[in-house]
Design brief:
Elements: E1 3-8, H1 12-22, E2 26-32, H2 40-57, E3 61-63, H3 68-75, H4 87-105, E4 110-113, H5 123-137, E5 140-141, H6 151-161, H7 173-184
Parallel strand pairs: 1-2, 1-4, 2-3, 4-5
Helix pairs in contact: 1-6, 4-5
Length: 185
């Protein structure tokens, strides 16, 4: 019998490669909890793109409520941090914490996240938060680096083939601002 794994999904393009990689070994369910994504229209865009592929590929995916105020309270005081800085681990902890809580309440054996597929993320930050939450909740965290072996590029290619549109920034208002300022230079 396969272990039940709850996969935190940050967006549709990132989920494609990761889901395909894990589905042979685990009974997968997806979990979309990303209140870091702003503005709200961007959040809805990413959610709808995931809903589109989840329906097309018959993936069971759960969608947690958008908790923008909770997210802002967690990262307050770190607004000027660069992407990949001190704000990101707190964001990962907040988002993954919700996933672990759901996993424990609903009998999942393991948790993983698509976050490590992004070249914009430091995998060690994600895995450190996941491992700490695993200890707290008594559920295994699958600490992976899904960007290895071109996971990011493969996921994007698969997404284009399925008509999934990609975004051009991490998701939070601070990463969007940072990207906009880089483009102006």
């Amino acid at each position: 019998m396969k272990k039940k794994l709850l996969l935190h999904i940050c967006c549709a393009p990132c989920s494609l490669y990761v889901w395909r990689k894990l589905q042979a070994d685990f009974e997968l369910s997806g979990f979309f909890f990303n209140p870091n994504i702003q503005p709200r229209a961007e959040y809805e865009f990413r959610r709808q793109e995931l809903e589109k592929i989840a329906e097309k590929l018959a993936w069971p995916v759960l969608y947690a409520p958008y908790d923008l105020y909770g997210w802002f309270s967690v990262v307050r005081g770190l607004e000027k941090e660069k992407e990949r800085g001190a704000r990101c681990p707190l964001c990962f902890k907040f988002r993954l914490g919700k996933v672990f809580q759901y996993a424990r309440e609903h009998g999942f054996d393991m948790v993983a996240s698509t976050l490590s597929i992004s070249p914009q993320k430091i995998t060690a930050q994600i895995n450190e938060q996941g491992n700490a939450l695993a200890e707290k909740y008594g559920i295994v965290f699958l600490a992976e680096n899904f960007k290895k072996k071109d996971g990011f590029l493969i996921g994007r290619k698969e997404g284009r083939a399925l008509g999934v549109r990609s975004q051009n920034y991490c998701g939070c208002v601070y990463s969007k601002l940072e990207r906009m300022l880089r483009l102006r230079q």
